[in-house]
Amino acid sequence: MNLRFNSVLFSLFIGLVVLSVEVALSQSIYLTSTHEVYPFLKRMEARGLLPEYRDAAKPLSRRVLATHLRTLEGALERMTELERDEYEFLKEEFNYELSSLAGDLEPSEIRWHVISETFPGGIINLEPNLHLSWAKVGEDDLRLRGQGVKFYGYAFNDFAYYFNFVDYREVGKAINIGRVHTPAPGVVLTKQTTESIEYNTTEVQLTASFGAFDISLEKMQNVWGPARHGSLIFSEKAPSYPQIKLRVPVTGWMDFIYLHADLNSNVLDSSRSYPANSSSMMNFFRPVDRLKYMAAHMVEITPVRGVNISLGESVVYSDRGPLLIYLIPIMFFKSAEHYNNDKDNVQWFANFDVNLLRNLNFYGSIFIDELNIDDLFDPEKQRNQLGYAFGFQTYDVLLNNLELNVEYTRTNPWTYTHKFPAVQFTNNGYVMGNWMGQNADNLFADLSYRPIRSLVIGGTFEIYRKGGQKDIGFQYVIPSQRFLYGPLHEERSYGAYARYQFVRDGFLDARVTSRSTSDEVLRLRGDKKMEFSVSARYGLW
After folding, report:
1. Distance (Å, rounded) from C-alpha 413 to C-alpha 439?
2. How far, in Å, CA of 411 to CA of 190, rounded?
3. Percentage of the chain with pLDDT > 90?
4. How does strand 196-210 pair with strand 385-395?
């Protein structure tokens, strides 16, 4: 009865969202956080040309991104020649939104699509998704093939929509099935053999805007935080999840975002699982997982020009719901957890993004899973289960179009974990935060140069260390386990890469990496391997 009642409340909430569309005034399509427009706008912010840019919660909408591009029209003379080329290139990408912002009642596309059709009150754009790659790791190889379709647009003056599907197949002995020790996104397998896997990804959204409010029903990735090499809060590590999202630009210096998501716990609910009893020949069993949900909200402000600060919290809860108390966007989730008799798992986080010195971006994040303020600095009593990251990126220092990014990330033991498996900070078995998981750190450096708009060449250096994970009971024992307790896995790597954009949305990538691995479980010490990869993709950023 409780589950049914909560489902009714959830349906009523959705109904109110849909009914509110009748007063919609504009449309928004969220653009995946890997698109090339984001690093360009970040560069413009660091160069002092875009002071009101805030991106702590990506993805942003095409309309918001177009607004920032429009702001840059008055700064063309202060851009380098390559930046002006990139700006004109991106203006073509966002022509429909730019025309709409300029007051055009019948905006149109000027960039090429396989299919682009306008109709009264909207447009549809359709493109194929294609991906081919080959990689060699030591003596093992890996071949990947992906194909799919993407379409997006606006409809009926009130709605925006987006659909992106890719079906993948990987073959070879170098397959990393669990995506361990890598920032590569996690996958949900549809088929697996001894030397091949198959999986697919789908991202969709239906968005309506009324007044300053953007409300969407979607299944998309969230990337919260300024880090370049894996966010602490929400990253692309876990598969995307269905969610309700609300975004509000409260003022010119403050943004608010809220979401409520339906997660996969991968924890069997024995009370709801049952034998099918449908065959006399075979025993079929119907497994049902425990319910799992997540809510999060964050406010980002610009207190002074060149400084962005964001604060937020999230909660993961399970076994009942969705709960009305977590459907209130401005609810204090920690208080709600207390109201629910501490059955849930709340996290706090904060970010800063500073651009006070021209051509320098300094940023950082902190993610707090558990923190004992009273014993913060007492090594015998502290339970500082948190993660933090900080880094900087320089632009055009010593040489135009040269960029340097250096970033350090650390997660203490038991960050993201919980005594109740169904409320861990995961989706489909993958951590929703930083790809390293708990008890790990990473030092990453990337030096890149862009001789022309369509070509990037660079080099990377990385030190990655991952400690062990004991029985979950140790999470609640004082003092906490020391950082990087064993068994220890360590990787040191350096490499070079190149990316060439041969046509809009089409990319050629090549990378070579030398990696040295030490692992106390596998009894490896300085095991060196060379890694090579080449790929071609279209429609996938």
Report:
1. 4
2. 31
3. 81
4. unpaired
Cis check for the bond before 120: say yes or no (omega within 30 of 0). Answer: no
Distances (CA, A) of 144 to 78, 130, 140, 302, 430: 43, 11, 14, 43, 21
Q: Alpha helix locations (H) across 352-431?
A: none
Task: Name the CA dihedral angle for 431, 482, 312, 346, rounded to a multiple of 10 degrees.
Answer: 70
Residue type, 213: F
Q: pLDDT band at 26, cuts 50/70/90?
A: low
Mean pLDDT (the chain) is: 91
Neighbours of 93 (CB within 10 A): 22
Please determine, for residue 2, whether its predicted confidence score (pLDDT) is greater than 80: no
List b or e across 106-124, with b for residues whose CB sees 16 or more CB atoms inside 10 angstroms: ebebeeebeebebeeebbb
pTM: 0.91
Three-state DSSP at 88 gives: helix
Total length of the chain: 541
Q: What are 325's two structure tokens?
A: 């108390």
Nearest alpha carbon to residue 389 among 409, 417, 368: 409
C-alpha pair distances (Å), 291 with each of 213, 262, 267, 268: 29, 8, 9, 10
Q: Three-class SS of residue 53?
A: coil
Residue the block writes with tokens 């647009």: 153
Question: Of the candidates 510, 511, 531, 535, which has an alpha carbon nearest to the alpha carbon of residue 136?
Answer: 531
Q: What is the pLDDT of residues 194-236, one digit of tens each?
A: 999 999 999 999 999 887 889 999 999 999 999 999 999 999 9
Distance between CA 58 and CA 77 in Å, rounded?
29
**Amino acid letter for position 290:** R
Q: Using pLDDT thresholds of 50, 70 and 90, give the confidence band for residue 11.
A: very low
Model pLDDT for residues 132-155, shown as the tens digit of each residue? 999 999 999 999 999 999 999 999
CA distance 55 to 230: 15
SS3 396: coil
